[in-house]
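Before the break, one more example. Copy the sequence into your notebook; we will annotate it together after we see the structure.
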Amino acid sequence: MSGSPPEVPPVTQAQAEDAVRTLLRWAGEDPAREGLLDTPRRVAEAYGDWFSGYRENPREYLSRTFEEVAGYDEMIVLRDIEYESHCEHHMAPIIGRVHVGYLPDGKVVGISKLARVVDAYARRFQVQEKMTAQVAQCIQDALHPLGVGVVVEGAHECMTTRGIHKRGVSMVTSSMRGSFRTDARTRAEFLRLIAAGRR
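Here is what the structure looks like once it is written out:
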């Protein structure tokens, strides 16, 4: 016995649409009403977009690196990567920004690839703390830099549109690896670069 989880059979588009119709009926609506006739299809297609991260391997985005950087060995920071995710507890949206920094050890990666890594993890059901760690670990494993820093800001609609109903609240999480964790000056430089030019 391998101990691996059993295979889950794939869900068809028709089954997903039926599930949406069930939720509409549970909410008190009539799925056969004219305005809702195409809603199950639209919702299923939206889920295919929102959760496309399950079909992606974030590490593949970092597989192509560049070493001809004229000896550049200073910190690289990509700020304000916007993301949209959904919390795994209530399936409610999380919307925010990610800031990524790393200290290269001889090789760098195209900056758009860092944004793609964020998207691949964000487009899954998430807990913000887990997503923060996943992005940092992915960069660490793929690039083997001297250090990595990731800061994630998120507004959670499971808190603003239900439950406690508190608006204007954002959550901030961080994950520091290597020199970003062990060297206070490196960490401070990263946080300073994130905040540069802001009031």
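The chain has a mean pLDDT of 92. Helices lie at 13-27, 39-50, 111-122, 128-143, 157-160, 179-182, 184-195. Try to locate both features in your own notes.
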